[in-house]
Amino acid sequence: MSQILVVIVTWKENMTDLKSMNRRRMLRTTLAWGGAAVFASRTDRAQGFMAANDRPQVAAVGTGSRWCQKATGIDRPYGSAPDMRKYGDYVVVCDADENRRSLASMLTKGWTGTAADSVADYRAILDRDDIDIVHISTPDHWHAKIAIEAMLAGKDVYCEKPMTLTIDEGKKMVDVCRQTERIVQIGTQQRSNPKFIQALALIPDGRIGTLQKATCSVGGAPTSPMLPKADVPQGLDWDKWQGPVPGSDFRSLAGNKNETSSWSRGHYEFRWWYEYSGGKLTDWGAHHVDIATWGLGNTKMGPISVNPISVKHPVSFKDGYPTDNTQYNTATEFQIQATFDDGIELEIRHDGDNGILFEGSDGRIFVNRGRLTGKAVEDLKSNPLPDRALEKVYKNRPLVDHFRNFFEAATDRKEPISDVFSHHRALSTCHLAGIAARLGREIKWDPKKEQVVGDDQAQSFIARDYRDGFEIET
Question: How many CB atoms lie within 10 A of CB 122?
Fold first, then answer.
């Protein structure tokens, strides 16, 4: 085993940080002259991703249920790793929870015959020349930092949604992706779902007339009882799990009917705390608002206003921040309206049938993962879409699953279907909805400058402060 795998990098080792900083500074200079050159030494292996002995090598950062639920101790194959491994081999797994990364390593042995190396610190991965792809499945508040540093280290990235915790992080992701020319796929897998692709092909073909509105029903968020301070579970590095966000006590209470059988500030339940996530607005919102923005033709421009028509939180707020840190705090009920400069509206709701309703001057269509309905859909039997209409929606690439699209994009050095740039625009609407919900007022937005108009307090939520030692290196 190489030295880098037996030495676990600690957060406060100045010499290691200095070495990493110098290496990345040198790498940025190289990438500025031609990002594709970094991939050249690995191109042969990447181009043969379907061959058994010639496949990209993948490092997993975050091995919870979104990566593979079996790594949490639940005997279900749910997660993205079972699909990702069809095209690449996991050779390293990383998690702040020793128990999960141990189970993940055992899983990879069953997949390839060789157990993946196990590391506690993702930076040990960035210095490895044999890693082609970094697969990020951490809680949301870690996504941008790891993705940016992976790109700067010359790795391609598959990052689960939502890509960022703030709009400012999205701007940084866009800048670094453009600078390094890395291939980055966001895990909004609905972009590769045939039902959604067909819905998005119907709209430009005029099947519902002039588009007027999209409504995204994303479901409400749960509440919790008051959670007492609790001992950190054995094997979990709570300081490392929190990473960039301000430190807090670990809280947990047994009895919840979920995969952890508890309410907590940690695994799985992180998405119901604004400190780590945006609640349902960025959880399911990252999926449905992404598709709606795509369908509206606004993937290069954001809204001009976001209005929280109605919002309900489980705790009280002051100046946009929860006053109670013992309970889940993300919005449980909401109706939020975003308006674009062309007058089209995008509404995000907690109620209604989970999915997206597109309304036009001549009809409407509804789409979710289970069905696609509407008169325009029924009319396809007698009036099918033009040849290659679906491929045109799919960036004129072959219609394949979301993971294969990523690996093919990495091979061809082409933009994947769920790219950083358009996802940032869609997710910005979700983030603005969250800010409006927290402050309880309408926000005016300049989509060109990516700034709040006339509201300094709202503008302050566009970015966040990072804990010392956890800042994003760019």
Answer: 26
Q: Answer yes or no: is 129 within a domain.
A: yes
Is 124 in contact with 94 (CB distance < 8 Å)?
Answer: yes
Structure tokens at 167: 């709009």
Q: Let me know: does 92 contact 116? Beta carbons within 8 Å.
A: yes
DSSP type of residue 471: P
Q: Where are the beta strands (DSSP E) in 313-403?
A: 317-318, 321-322, 333-339, 345-349, 355-360, 363-367, 372-373
Q: H or E stretch including 290?
A: helix 285-296
Tally the domains of the chain.
2
What's the token pair of residue 160?
Answer: 């689960």
- Please check whether residue 441 is in contact with residue 308, taking contact to mean a CB–CB distance below 8 angstroms: yes
Report yes or no on 104 lying in a domain: yes
Same domain, 250 and 360: yes
pLDDT at residue 474 in the model: 80
State residue 464's pLDDT score: 93
Whether residue 125 is contained in a domain is answered as yes
Give the dihedral of Cα atoms 394, 397, 398, 399; nearest 10 deg: -10
Q: How far apart are CA 90 and CA 165, in angstroms?
A: 26
Element (H, E) at 240: helix 238-242
Q: Which two tokens stand for residue 351?
A: 């109620």
- One-letter amino acid of 94: C
State the Cα–Cα distance between residues 207 and 423, nearest whole angstrom. 26
Tokens matching residue 196: 């959604």
The 10s digit of each residue's pLDDT in 387-396 is 999 999 999 9
Q: Looking at the domain assignment, is residue 92 inside a domain? A: yes
Distance CA(208)–CA(304), nearest Å, equals: 25
Amino acid letter, residue 240: K
Report d(CA 276, CA 140) in Å as an integer: 6
Beta strand 321-322 pairing with 333-339: unpaired
CATH value at residue 49: 3.40.50
Query: Residue 74 belongs to what domain range?
Result: 3-138
Sequence letter at residue 55? R
pLDDT of residue 45: 38
Predicted structure pTM score = 0.90
- Residue 50: the pLDDT is 61
Low-confidence ranges of the chain (pLDDT < 50): 1-47
Same domain, 361 and 231: yes
H, E, C per residue of 16-67: HHHHHHHHHHHHHHHHHHCCHHHHHCCHHHHHCCCECCECCEEEEECCCHHH
Q: What pLDDT, on a 0 to 100 scale, did the predictor assign at position 49?
A: 64
Task: Give the Å distances, CA to CA, from 340 to 58, 430, 465.
Answer: 39, 14, 30
Q: Which of 169, 101, 85, 174 is nearest to 133 (CA)?
A: 85
Q: How many CB atoms lie within 10 A of CB 12?
A: 8
Displacement of CA 78 from its chain's centroid (Å) = 17
